[in-house]
Amino acid sequence: MRTISHFVGNETLSGSSGRSGPVYDPATGRQTAEVDLASPAEVDRAVAAAHEAFRSWRGASLAHRTALLFRYRELLHAHREELARLITAEHGKVHADALGEVARGLEIVELACSIPTLLKGELSTQVSNGVDVASIRQPLGVVAGVTPFNFPAMVPLWMFPVAIACGNTFVLKPSEKDPSASLLLAALARDAGFPPGVLNVVQGDRPAVERLLAHPDVAAVSFVGSTPVARAVQRGAWEHGKRVQALGGAKNHMLVLPDADLDVAADNAINAAYGSAGERCMAVSVVVAVGEATGDALVARLARRAKGLRIGPGDDPSSEMGPLITAEHRARVAAYVPAAREQGAEVVVDGTGLVVPGHEGGFFLGVSLLDRVTPEMDAYRDEIFGPVLCVARVASYDEALALINGSRWGNGTAVFTRDGGAARRFQLEVEAGMVGVNVPIPVPVGYHSFGGWKESLFGDHHVYGPEGVRFYTRGKVITSRWPDPATAEGGINLGFPSNH
Ligand code: NAD
Predict the structure, then answer these.
(1) Residue 147 belongs to domain with CATH number
(2) Checking phi first, is residue 491 left (phi over 0); if not, alpha (psi -120 to 50) or beta?
(3) Whose CA is nearest to atom 26 of ligand 1?
(4) How far is the CA of 373 from the centre of ligand 1 (A)?
(5) Is 403 helix (H, G, I), strand (E, B) or coil?
(6) Which partner from 190, 301, 341, 453 sits 20 to 30 angstroms from 165, CA to CA?
(7) SS3 for 222?
(8) Given the CA of residue 148, which atom of ligand 1 is nearest to it?
(9) Measuring CA to CA, which residue among 430, 371, 434 is closest to residue 403?
């Protein structure tokens, strides 16, 4: 059985903890590898390598860092098919979706290539006689990144390119469920010329994360994953005096107003709900239909489309949706469908009985559509993270807004309408970090920042874009006096320095 290990100081580091976990091909259900799970001592080795590398990397010129990032961008682009195949093999998502993930990750590397512009400071000259003031931003040191299973390449790429471009060094702890993509990302960084220790990967689970949170040489932690763990990571980082951004789960609502083009709305809802088998933090999980007529017409359209989706292995080009990540997760997601029926929802499409011929052992689950879902039902209250789309019916825009703003999460949301005024009102009134207007998955481009509100993000900074640069740097203000030699004044003055 293949063993997946750590990557420290630009070299593979075999695990020595004696602990490992299984990695599956979700399309067959067969185990394909063992992943080493790091002990605290192995985490310490990675942090030590990063700490050592920081001593010189922090001083590497912007020209040099940029040159390496450009080379990295080219290497990633050249290896995007290979990366996508690795993602499909361990996550299960269809190849086109995996390629899309890589493309969105590449955007952040492209952003990082513009680091000389992003890191420009500010200068005020002659604030007083012969006195100038400069504001600069400096790297933090060793930064840790902890990432979820659902985007094994894109989410790490949200973090380390920006962190490294800012002059930090990085220790990545990817999901133990699909750990291979991170190793290819790190190997390509080595091939691009990044010095040993600048980007390290430790495989592992909770003990590895807890050591990263406690390690005195880790300056900051970026986390993306579920809400309970995000909350715990924020607390752990704070306890140890670290800067932290911890992105959590979501329940994203798509509001459909009566004037919307319902065919367009239905197409978009299907894509955003069932793409990547619903295992996206920006997936649409609740469609909110305003008015019974809108609800009836929309549900009919959604049902027709949902029944026609082609579900199969991710490496089959005809598949539109792949399997879920594990057998346990499939069982958990499937259980929401009968529970919703018992709690009073209408199960319009029930995908729980799906079998994919030739792939009976795979973790496949058909798509389900639940109508007349209400806030007290489990299917509404929980983040399901699978191919189950809920439809909630409301009588008015105000009722819709109250429902959406009553959610404990605030990651993404969308409105579908032809009415610009209604859309404008929604974008100002809704409590969510990312809003789409006739755009179902409003993941910001690389030069804006990504992040939700409420229980979808713990911390003050969103990831990548300008906020990513701020998160991975700290400010310093330098006040200097270089008197003109021709007019230099001297003398003693014990008064508080004032500007004149
Ligand atoms: P998860 O929280 O189970 O795991 C995320 C990471 O934390 C993994 O690296 C895992 O090894 C580690 N981890 C797990 N339990 C831990 C613990 N008790 N202590 C310390 N570390 C622990 O999440 P997941 O199942 O891998 O990913 C799915 C979740 O991620 C969903 O809730 C989804 O909404 C969320 N997500 C959010 C965003 C966002 O941008 N807000 C993006 C992607 C995924």
Answers:
(1) 3.40.605.10
(2) left
(3) 148
(4) 26
(5) helix
(6) 453
(7) strand
(8) 26
(9) 430
Query: Quick check: 227 and 60 in contact, CB under 8 A?
Result: no
Say whether both 286 and 329 belong to one domain: yes
- Amino acid, res. 121: G
Does 442 reside within a domain? no
Q: How far is the C-alpha of 449 from the C-alpha of 44, rounded, in Å? A: 31
Residues contacting 328, CB < 8 A, separation 6+: none
Q: Are 170 and 222 in contact (CB under 8 A)?
A: no
Note down the domain range covering 411: 252-437
Task: Tell me the best of 91, 108, 149, 382 to mutate to test the pocket of ligand 1, counting ligand atoms within 8 Å of each CB and taking the most.
Answer: 149
Q: How many domains does the chain have?
A: 2
Number of Cβ within 10 Å of residue 124's Cβ equals 12
Q: What is the mean pLDDT of residues 481-485?
A: 86
What are the pLDDT digits (tens) for 202-229?
Answer: 999 999 999 999 999 999 999 999 999 9
Best CA proximity match to 143, nearest among 197, 191, 63: 197
pTM over 0.70: yes
Q: Which amino acid is at 28?
A: T
* 402 domain-assigned: yes
Q: Is 226 in the pocket of ligand 1 (CB under 6 A)?
A: yes
Residues 281-332: tens digit of each pLDDT? 999 999 999 999 999 999 999 999 999 999 999 999 999 999 999 999 999 9
pLDDT at 491: 80
Q: What is the DSSP string of 251-307?
A: -EEEEE-TTS-HHHHHHHHHHHHHGGGG--TT-EEEEEEESHHHHHHHHHHHHHHHH
Burial class of residue 3, CB neighbours in 10 A (0-12, 13-18, 19+): middle
Q: What CATH code is carried by the domain that includes residue 321?
A: 3.40.309.10
Q: Are 212 and 47 in contact (CB under 8 A)?
A: yes
Burial of 444 (0-12, 13-18, 19+ CB in 10 A): middle
Tokens representing 158? 């949200």
166 is catalytic: no
In a domain, 485, yes or no: no
Confidence band for 488, pLDDT divided at 50, 70 and 90: low
The Cα–Cα gap between 265 and 294 comes to 11
Residue 177 alpha carbon, nearest atom of ligand 1: 26
Query: How crowded is residue 352: how many other Cβ atoms within 10 Å of its Cβ?
Result: 18
